[in-house]
Amino acid sequence: MVEKVILAYSGGLDTSCILKWLLEKGYEVICLMADVGQKEDFELAKQKALKIGAKQVIVEDVKEDFVKNYIWPAVQMGLIYEERYLLGTSLARPCITVALVEAAKKYQAKYIAHGATGKGNDQVRFELCAYALLPSIKIIAPWRDDEFCQQFQGRLDLIEYARKHNIPVTAKPSTPWSTDANILHISYESGILEDPNQIAPETLYEMTKDPQTQAPKQSMRMTITFEKGLPVKLNDKSQSPLEILEILNYVAGSYGIGRIDIVENRYVGLKSRGVYETPGGTVLFQAHQDLEVFCLDREVLRCKQYLRDRMADYVYNGFWFSPEANYVRQCLELSQDKVNGQVVMELRPGYCQAVARTATTNALYNQELVSMDVHGEYVPRDASGFIAINSVRLREHVRAFGPYEVAKK
Q: Which long-range contacts (CB under 8 A, 24 or more apart) does 303-310 make?
């Protein structure tokens, strides 16, 4: 009996060669391509897979699901990994895995296969999500298979294998980096980027214009409306999450907003260098962060920030579907009940910033109370007692251990 495999297929060099390799092993392969907003000729890739020998090719449009159920919750929770990375690839993996698992159920496939490297995070993300959704599923990961790794050391061997089997590929031995794209971002890694001291060339960027030479000189202001921490309007116009993100990607991209070049800590224990473009996501993150500080109680905000960092780790490490992520997600969603209002964002070449904000429900910001022009209900002399009580601990430390040493110039 021929075993069925659902292959996460991209149409690129790796998964095209993996498709042929699986067929040589006697599997019946059904390819699944998830449209998460990448600029891809899906019909061309479909015909390519069928020509190689795929039994069937499924092109699943999951863009709206990706934005609504993964990106928007990430914006609401304020997720950011190691203070810089907005998790563009990490968020796409559980969305894609859902499509893979649904296909496995529909076609009664015993296996799911992917082309993720054995050194990266994606293998962990795909597989942990798959096991959480369908514990009985089995995984074929060629880049961890001894026989496959002996046959293929890297891209040069894959290119030669593709040539031998008449598999059309655009990859060349000199391709200087690899990319992963979706509607939230594009990531670039490997190749020349593996040297962290190698400056990424300007020709690398695809979603953003050069902020120094191509961005508009005149700034632009955009108003984003949030309800319970979720973006619902752009410039006072109600639009779908997908529409909002597409518009922000285009506008922020034209200003060169959302570029980062970082070294990050992979879950598998390695440090890796990545270059990312997240134009619309960067604007949304900064707008939400500004409104959140404006609306939330200080101690709630501190607790929320701690949970946010834990949730960012869960998402980055592949635990989107896990008991801890479910629990923390509910806590973070609860914190957003009062994050309702508008933020005016100013876009300039290479960066954006909030320049005005207002709350649409009762706000903690009390303009009269904080004003330097009137006392209002604030009693200045009460600050004397506040300072005195807080100084007790400092005075006692000096009594017990002596005065603090002051550095001399």
A: 303/335, 304/78, 304/331, 304/332, 304/335, 305/78, 307/331, 307/332, 307/335, 308/77, 308/78, 308/79, 308/80, 308/332
